Amino acid sequence: MSTMNETEVRAEVREWLAANWDPDLPLAEWRGKLADSGWGMPQWPKEWYGRGLPVGLARVVEEELAAIGAVGVARSGVRLLAAATILEHGSDVHKKRYLRRILTGEDTWCQFFSEPGSGSDLAGATTKAELKGDFWIVNGQKVWTTSAHHADHGLLLARTDWDAPKHEGMSFFIIDVKQPGVDVQPLRQMNGHASFNQVFFTDAKVPKENLVARVGDGWKVAMTTLAHERRGADGLPPPSKRGTRIGKIHAEEREETEKANQPYKWYPQRAGRVDLIIERAKETGANKDPVARQEIAKLMTLAKSAEWTARRARAAQRQGRPQGPEGSLGKLAASHVARACARVHTLMTGAAAMLTGAESPRDGIIAEILVSVPAVSIAGGTDEIQRNIIAERVLELPKEPRFDTGPFRNVRRN
Amino acid sequence: MSTANQSTAEPKRRIQFAFTDEQEQFRSALRRFLNDRSPTTEVRRLMATETGYDPAVWRQLSEELALPGIHVPEQYGGAGFGMVELGIVMEELGRALLCAPYFSTAVLAANAILNAGSEAQKAALLPDLASGARLAALAVTEPDGDWNPAAVAAVATPAGDGYRLDGVKSYVVDGHIADLLIVAARAPKTSGLEGLALFTLAADASGVKRRQLAAMDPTRKIAQIEFSGAHASLLGNLNDGVKAIQRTLDQAAIALASEMAGGAQTMLDSAVNYAKMRVQFGRTIGSFQAIKHKLADLLLEVELAKSAAYYAAQAAAANDPEWPALASLAKAATSETYLHAAAECIQIHGGIGFTWDNDTHLWFKRAKSSETFLGQPSYHRELLMQRWGV
Ligand SMILES: Cc1cc2nc3c(=O)[nH]c(=O)nc-3n(C[C@H](O)[C@H](O)[C@H](O)COP(=O)(O)OP(=O)(O)OC[C@H]3O[C@@H](n4cnc5c(N)ncnc54)[C@H](O)[C@@H]3O)c2cc1C
Ligand SMILES: Cc1cc2nc3c(=O)[nH]c(=O)nc-3n(C[C@H](O)[C@H](O)[C@H](O)COP(=O)(O)OP(=O)(O)OC[C@H]3O[C@@H](n4cnc5c(N)ncnc54)[C@H](O)[C@@H]3O)c2cc1C
Questions:
Q1: Residue A307: what pLDDT?
Q2: Which of A165, A286, A354, B259 could make an S-S bridge to A348, C-beta 3.0–4.6 Å?
C-alpha cells in the first residue's frame, strides 16, 4: 500500500491530468493511458494498472477526474467484477491478457453463475467441465445471463467433481463466449426488454490455462465475485462530471454508452427513479393530496436515509475504519427504495400509469418503473438471501440448517 | 467547533459522514459512565420516585462531564460544542434510558434561551443551566396536545415592568421539578403565528400551579401547569418570538431523534441477544428464519434511522438552510423505527416480553412518549413537505 496522503494524491493526479488529458483523443487510446498510468484504477496494485492506493484515496482520484470532465476507464456491466476476481485469484497470464482490455472497454464480460436448477443456491450448479487433453470441455445450461449476447468472455462456475461435497466439487473458468459450443438465446423479460439470456454449452472448449485458481476452488473464487457485487450495490452515483473542455472523446463515449445500453434502457427505471418523485408530485398535482403527501414524504425519508447510510459506509472506508453494519445493508436498502418508488410513482400518476404509448406520461417511464423494479430484489442475490447474510455475518445469528451435505451426487436437487 | 445557535452568517462547514476520533472517544467515555450509573435497576428505582432523577448523578454528569452545557457557548458557561455533540449525548442517554432532566433543561430550555434571549438574559440565565445548578422546563403545548405553536392559547398581557400570564400548559417535561419556566404565550387578541413570544418566570412564583400528570412512560415525567395572573418577563423581544420557538422545537426534534436512535439500538441489541440465548424446538430461536429476517430488517431500519438523525444534526451544525426540514425528517423516521424496534423486541421475547420484570417495556413506553412528543410522524412528514416547498 502506498503511504501518500490525500493532498499528495490530489496534487499528483492533477499534474498527470494537466499533462495528459486531451478531450480529442480516441476513447480507447485515452483509456489505455489511464490504465498504463494506474490512474484509472488507483486502488489496484502497482504492477497491474493501479497505484496501490487505499479505496478511500481512489475516490479522491475519481473526484479529480470528474472535476475536469475527464472520461474514466470502462466500468459497465460485470467487467469490474471480472477484474476483481482475476486480480485476486487469476494467474499472471490472466492478468496480462484480460485486465487492460477490461479497462479500455475493448472486451465485454458476462457472469455464467445461475442455472435453471440453482440460483440462490449457486453451489448447486450442474453445468460440468471435464479435462480432455489441453482443454476443459463444458456441457450444461446457464440462465439469466445478462449481456451474454454481446460479451467476449464469461466467468464460468462449473462442476468438476460429483463425488465431492457440493461446495468442494466446483471450479472456476474464463470461457470465450464467441465459439461454436456456446449457444446464446435472449430471454424476454416482463418489461419487454431482453437484457438477459439462456445459454447452452455443448462441448464448449476452455483452454487448460483458463482455469482460475485450482480445481475445486470454484466456490471460493465465486464468493470473491459476489462480495464485490454486493459491495458495489450501495446505489451512490459517481461524482458528477464538470469541466469545460468538451471534445470528440465525449461524443465517442456517449455513442459507446448508447450502443452498449440498447437492451439496458430500463436500468434507471429498475432502481425506481427517486430523482423524479418531487417533480412528478408537482406535475400530477399529487402534492395537493394529503395522503399522497404522506407517502411521498415516507419514500423520500427512506431514500435519503439509504443514501446517507451508504455515505457513512464510504466515509468509514475512507478513514480506514473497520466496516460497520452500514456497509452490508446497501443492497437490501436499494430494494426497499425501488419498491417504494414504484408504488408512489404509480399512486401519483393514477390511471395514466397504465399507459405505455404515445399518450403515456413521461414516454412510458412510469409504467416501465413498475414492471422493472421487481428485478432489483432478485438479481445479484435475492432480498431473502441478503437477510440471511446480514443475520449471519453482521448479527452473528446461527447459520441456516444444512440438508445438502455428503457427496453432491446424492444431494436432492431440481 | 461551531454551535448550531450561531447566526446564519457563520461560515458553512462540511457535512461529515463519520464521527471524528475525539467524538468517538467522547461517546465511549459517556457510555462507560452511563453503563455504570444508569443500569436498569437504577432506571426502575428512579422512575418510581416523585422527582424521577438522582441529584447525585445529575451533579456528576454536570460537573465531571459538563453535559448540560455541551452545546452552550463558552461565554455562557458551556463547553462550546454544537448539535453533533448534543446528538451524541442524546443518543447515549436514549440507549441507557437515563432518568434525568437533561432533555428539559439542556435541550428545550437552554436552546430556547439561546434562540430568544437578549445578551443580558443569556448571560444571566444560561450559566446556571449549563452547570446543572438549576433545572428548567419549556412550556409550549396545551391540553389539546397540538405541537403547532399557532395553537398556543395562553395570553401574556403587559403589566407594569413585565407581563401577566394566563393559561394552561400541558405535557411539560420535568415541569414538576423545574426551577425556571419558559412559557410560550401570545399577546392579547392575536391568533395563529402572530403575537407569539417566550416568557420566563420562577416556577415557585405566585399564580403558578403545577401538577405532575400520571403518565404511561414513567421514565420521563410530565406536568400540567396553570398560570393565573403570574408575573413573567419577556425573553428577548416580541417580534422574533415565533422564529425562536420554531427553531427551539426543530433543534429539540433533532436531539430527540438522536435519543430515539439510541433507544432503537438498545432494542435491537436486546432482541438479538435474547434470540441467541433462547432455545425452543431444540434450537435457539435466532436460528429460525422468521426471527433472523425480522432482525436483519430491524438492523437495516435502525441504521437508516441513525443516518437520518446524524445527518440532521450535521446539517444543523453546518447551518445548512435545509436543516429544519431535515429535523422533521429525522423526527418522523426515528420515532417509527424506535417504536417498531421496541414492539419487535417484545415479540421476540415471547411471554416474558409482556411482563413488568422484563426491561423491554421501559423502552417501549419511552418510544411511544417520544413519538408523540413534539408531534407525531405524520405531522412531521407534512412539515417536511412544506419545508421542501412541495
Ligand atoms: C435482471 C436479472 C439479471 C440477472 N443477471 C444474472 C447474470 O448476469 N448472471 C447470473 O448468473 N445470474 C443472473 N441473474 C440471476 C439471479 O442471480 C438469480 O435469479 C437469483 O440469484 C435467484 O435465483 P433463482 O432465480 O434461481 O431463484 P431461487 O433461488 O429459486 O429463489 C426463489 C425464491 O426462494 C427464495 N429462497 C431461495 N433460497 C432461500 C433461502 N435459503 N432462504 C429463504 N428464501 C430463499 C428466494 O429468495 C426467492 O424468493 C439475474 C437475474 C435477474 C432478475
Ligand atoms: C397475556 C398472556 C397470557 C397467557 N396465558 C397463558 C395461559 O393461560 N396458559 C398457558 O399455558 N400459557 C399462557 N401464556 C403463554 C403463551 O402461550 C406463550 O407465551 C407463547 O406460547 C410463547 O411462548 P414463550 O413465551 O415461551 O416464547 P418462545 O416460545 O420462547 O418464543 C420467543 C419468540 O420466538 C418465536 N419462535 C418460537 N418458536 C419459533 C419457531 N419455530 N419459528 C419461528 N419463531 C419461533 C416466537 O414467535 C417468539 O417471537 C400466556 C401469555 C401471555 C402473554
A1: 96
A2: A286
Ligand number nearest CA of B283 is 2
Q: Is the pLDDT of residue A326 over 80?
A: no
SS3 content of chain A, % helix, strand, coil (to 5): 50, 15, 35
A393, part of any domain: no
The average confidence (pLDDT) of chain A is 93
Q: Torsions phi, psi of B94, nearest 5?
A: -70, -35
- Decide if the complex's ipTM is over 0.90: yes
Asked if A68 and A113 sit in the same domain, the reply is: no
Atom of ligand 1 nearest to the CA of A388: 42
At A406, the pLDDT band (50, 70, 90 cuts) reads very high
The total domain count for chain A is 3
CA angle B84, B88, B91 (to 5 degrees): 130
Which positions in chain A touch B311 (Cβ < 8 Å)? Answer: 304, 308
Question: How many angstroms separate the CA atoms of B153 and B169, rounded?
Answer: 9
The CA–CA distances, whole Å, from B367 to A344, A375, B188, B203, B357 equal 28, 36, 37, 28, 18
- Can you tell me the distance from the alpha carbon of A392 to that of A412, in angstroms, rounded to the nearest whole number? 24
Whole domain around residue A317: which residue ranges? 266-380
Q: What is the DSSP letter of A288?
A: G
* Mutation to probe ligand 2, out of B285, B288, B344 (largest number of atoms < 8 A from CB): B285
Ligand nearest to the CA of A156: 1
* B332 closest CB neighbour out of A301, A311, A394: A301
Q: List the 298-317 stretch of B: residues with Cβ below 8 A of A.
A: 299-300, 303-305, 307-308, 310-311
Spatial distance between the Cα atoms of B207 and A158, rounded to a whole number of angstroms: 85
Residue of A297, A273, A277 whose CA lies nearest to A370:
A273
User: Are A222 and A108 found together in one domain?
Assistant: yes
Q: For residue B63, give the C-alpha cell.
A: 460537573
DSSP secondary structure code for residue A57 in this structure: H
Q: How far lies A191's CA from each of A44, A263, B365, in Å?
A: 37, 11, 47
Average pLDDT value for residue range A392-413? 95
Q: What is the pLDDT of residue B371?
A: 98
Q: Are residues A118 and A212 in the same domain?
A: yes
Domains and CATH numbers, chain B: 21-133 (1.10.540.10), 137-239 (2.40.110.10), 243-387 (1.20.140.10)
The 10s digit of each residue's pLDDT in A86-122 is 999 999 999 999 999 999 999 999 999 999 999 999 9
